[in-house]
Structure formats: C-alpha cells, structure tokens
Design goal:
Blueprint: E1 8-12, E2 18-21, H1 24-29, E3 41-49, E4 54-59, H2 62-96
Antiparallel strand pairs: 1-2, 1-3, 3-4
Length: about 100
Amino acid sequence: MALAKCNYVVVYDNSPQVYTTSSLETVLDAPFPKNSEDAKRTILFLSYFPDTQELKVFEVTEEEMNQKRIEVAETTARREEKRLARSEKGLEEDAES
C-alpha cells in the first residue's frame, strides 16, 4: 500500500474538511479553501515515537508560523540572488565571446 507523507493537519473552524501536508511551507503557500478565508485555522504537527509506540500531536503556534515565514522569505531571497548571479555571469561570458 502506497502512503503519502502527513506531518501536518490543518483544520478550519467553519469547515468539516481536514487537510494534510508534509511540510509547513506548503501550509503557508496553500490558498485558503472556499468560504474559509476569514476562518481561524488550527495547524497540528504529528510525530510517531517508535520506541514508545506513541503518536503525539502538537499544535503549531503563531510564533512558529511567523518563524517559518521568515525562513521561507530568506530562502527565496538567497535563491533569487544565486539566480541573478548565474544570469549575470552568463551575460558576461556571452559578451566576452
């Protein structure tokens, strides 16, 4: 049986639907479902501890979400800098030819 990774569960106060994802970045990037744009959402992190055979659930705090937003923004900025540097290097090499 093929299984998908599910580390995060997202539920909205006004929706019976449960959403899952493997990364917090996906939660940040995903649009809100219809009729849930203004709803409060709860994000839960799931982790299995094989030594004790326990599945534990932790609520993701707003502080953790803000930290992840900062990390994503920094990563995106670094990627853009590298892309621009490669682009400029390529233009310089073309000019020398």
